[in-house]
Structure formats: structure tokens, C-alpha cells
């Protein structure tokens, strides 16, 4: 059995605002093992950011404990920060006027990388995320994908054993998102443990071994990723837009295909179909019922976590 690297036990955090107390986390207990990638899911306000901040020793818990490689987040914050990398998605947190290399240097120094190792570590981090060629350009000239890869380089330059990733692929085009998933997969293969917050099931499916569901500040689910995806009951949503009459067979659905709704507007109709599994049966059904339709476009979207929440009623919205 791989050794535990993150041990969270009975963790809680309350906030008091104008005499009202909000429980952001309540009695949260879980363990993350070496080389394990765990998806942390939960709707807005579920407590994900609060948990991430406590684990990276940026916020104190009000109860319970959290340890990173044996170091308590309250008693040994410096040791915790040296062992943990935090990567937030989006545009924030970079110095635009500085180059990519200078940005990494700044954060490497903050996270305790020794002076004599720093040049070599920065070069390696740039190389790992494919930014060596752009390293000496100001960050304001970077694309979204490049900025996101720079976030990864910054979060990993001090070689943390645990990574906390918050929405890492947000706003990226599919190619950049895939490149990022590959980079995260490589870190996992090197034995780094990852706690991944994402609303995209594709990220979680590709990378996570296990899924933790936070609802209203408590863990309401702890299961393998496969179990979680199967619980939704379908794999993708296909939206078909076509001209003319709605094929009668389409409205009934078919083996592996459920009809969510059909909207007709003048001569054009649009159907939303849930595909339970991609395979010959569902492909054959769709191509048969659409064979005579004047199809304008087809959009295929993988199942999103929000859809799974809706199906399982895991929302826990405040
Ligand atoms: N500094 C704070 N002061 C008061 N309440 C707070 C504070 N930080 C968080 N909360 C509350 O704690 C709860 C959990 O918030 P948190 O930001 O951890 O949720 P989240 O799951 O990260 O949400 P999101 O997906 O929207 O980022 C919310 O009700 C929030 O309003």
C-alpha cells in the first residue's frame, strides 16, 4: 500500500460574519496516498477553496487536523508549503511585465528552492511544460494556454510531493487542455499526489483514480472515478439541429440513447439526446434515425459534472 501523504481528520472551519456563523467545512476526513490523483468535486460554496487553503497552510482550521507528509498544517506551515504546490486556473497570480523565467524564479525563491539549484530547476520546469522557447518573453505576450502551463511550472519548480490544482483547464482550447492533462499525468507518474478541483468530468476521468464529493462542507461521496461516471447513467450529450420534419423514430429514443427534449422552431428542429455509452449500438441507432434528415449540425459534449450532480442530486447548494 502506498504511503499516505495527505491525512485529513475531522477537519472543520467556520466563518463568522456579522454574528452569523457559516460552516464552510464540517468533520471532513480523508486520506490521499502517494501517486494518487483524487478529484475534489462540489457545487459552488461547497467548501473546496476553504479546504485547498487549509491544506496549503494559508488558512487555519477551527477544528480537526490536516497533515502533509506528517507535517501539521497549523504547527509546521513552512514545511507544508515546501512540500505542496498550488496551481489555480485562470488569469490571475502572474506578473505580466516579467518574463516567464522571472516569474518562476520569484516563486521558486518564495518556496525555498536553494540559490545554487535555482537556475537548473527553472530550466527543467520550463522544459517540462514546453515553454523553453518563450521563457524570456514578458508574460503579457503569452496565450491563455501558455499562462496556464506557466502556472504549472511555478507550482512544481520546488518539486512538491503534493499538488493542489484548482480548475486547471478552465478557458483552454481542447489542444491546450489535453497538453495540460498530459503534463499532470506525467507528474502523477513521477509519484506526485494530486488533489484536483474541476467541473469538467473529462479532466477528472482522464486523471483521477478517485472522486471526493463535498456538499455543504461535508464529504458526501468517496468513490472510484468509474463508479462516479457510471452513476450519471450516460456518457455524452448529443445535440442535433436539422431542417424539416422531426423523424418519428427519433422521439422514441433507442437502445443506449435517451431523448432529453426536442425544440421545433419554424422549419428547424433541435434535439438533445443522452448517449449512455459510445458503441456500435448507439452509433447505428443515431445514423439510422437521422439518415433521411437534413442535418445542419451535430454537437457532442461529454457528460459534465453538473449533469452528474443533477442526476445524483449531490448538489448541496446553499
Ligand atoms: N472569508 C470568508 N468569510 C466568510 N465566509 C466565507 C469565507 N470564505 C468562504 N466562506 C463561506 O464558506 C463556504 C464555502 O466556501 P468555499 O469558497 O470554500 O466554496 P467552494 O466550494 O470553493 O465554492 P466555489 O466553487 O464557488 O469556488 C461558502 O458558504 C462561503 O460563503
From TrEMBL:
Domain of life: Bacteria
Gene Ontology cellular-component annotations: plasma membrane
Keywords on record: Antibiotic resistance, ATP-binding, Nucleotide-binding, Transport
Gene Ontology annotations of biological process type: response to antibiotic
Membrane topology: Peripheral membrane protein
Matches recorded under Pfam families: ABC_tran
GO molecular function, one term: ATP binding
Localization terms from the record: Cell membrane
Record keyword Magnesium present: no
Metal-binding among keywords: no
Family: Belongs to the ABC transporter superfamily.
PANTHER family the record matches: ABC TRANSPORTER ATP-BINDING PROTEIN (PTHR42711), ABC TRANSPORTER ATP-BINDING PROTEIN NATA (PTHR42711:SF5)
Protein name, as recorded: ABC-2 type transport system ATP-binding protein
Organism: Micromonospora echinospora
